[in-house]
Write a structure and sequence with these properties.
With 339 residues, this protein is an alpha/beta fold. It has two domains: 4-118 and 301-318, Nucleotidyltransferase, domain 5 (2-Layer Sandwich), CATH 3.30.420.40; 130-297, 2-Layer Sandwich (Nucleotidyltransferase, domain 5). The protein has ten helices and ten strands. A five-stranded mixed sheet has the order 3-2-1-4-5, sandwiched between helices. The protein has a five-stranded mixed sheet with strand order 8-7-6-9-10, with helices on both faces.
Amino acid sequence: METVIMAIETSCDETAVAIIKDGKEILANVVASQIDVHKKFGGVVPEIASRKHLELINVVVAEALEKANLSFADITHYAVTYGPGLVGALLVGVSCAKALAFGDNKPLIGVNHIEGHIYANFLTNPNIELPVVCLIVSGGHTTLVKIENHGEYDFLGQTRDDAAGEAFDKIARALGYGYPGGPQIEQHAKGGNPEAIELPRAWLEEGSYDFSFSGLKSAVLNYLNRCEMKGIEINKPDIAASFQEAVTDVLVQKTVSAAEKHKVETILLAGGVSANKYLRNRMIESASEKGLKVIYPPIELCTDNGAMIGAAAHYKALRHDFAPLTLNANPNLKFAKTN
């Protein structure tokens, strides 16, 4: 079954539209970022994000068609992220996709944003052999799943409080690095000593693949407060490096342990934080010691984009898993054990 899918992603602050052929060929991948708009606020302002999506969505759709050298008649399906995310932002994308599907009389496919991140891997590695274990790690999510087959997920663990990316952003803000925090922490950590400050790791109960980063975040904030109160000079690169090491240590050990337990040969990384080269290198190093392979998307496909949504939608189209035109945005959409 050949598919040419126009995929729309507006879950947060990127207005993204891609056109994907057969789940692996990127004909167009247009992303209009709002980072500069939100930077002065230190984070995404939901109302501003949704207004910018309204301004940009039609322009980005047109640009995607132009880059792919296609018309609406060439599109076989329309796909859209319908959750989780910011409700106002999601509604812009969902409304646009529903209008296009209705007007063009083509099937509509609703995609879970987290599932989209997983399928960024299949764009550049379409022949990944399943089952695999995948770590989805971003600003809003830290989730570990075993993928049995396309659309079949064995839920292994998730964060019980802050997501890893959320913790990165909060510590970056505390250090005065600004937004977005993840890349700032990674950059400044290069000049620091990852063993300079002893920070806690939340391993939780024995055998648990859940995560917790709130205690680590609090430990860093308390350290900063103590230094300020005692007049001790703060070495920001050392703090950034020690914090990054603590987060990475837990992510890597739990993921590799899960892969071993579930007897898979491949680990996938997904989500915005998977762009972190320190995490990638540590995961590869630890996995290779166990004879495991690590796959991750190129940097431009780690952050929010329409291409990943189009890739996920292709496999849903093969299963005839279509959405009704009554599809609505679901900001609290869960990533279930089985889709």
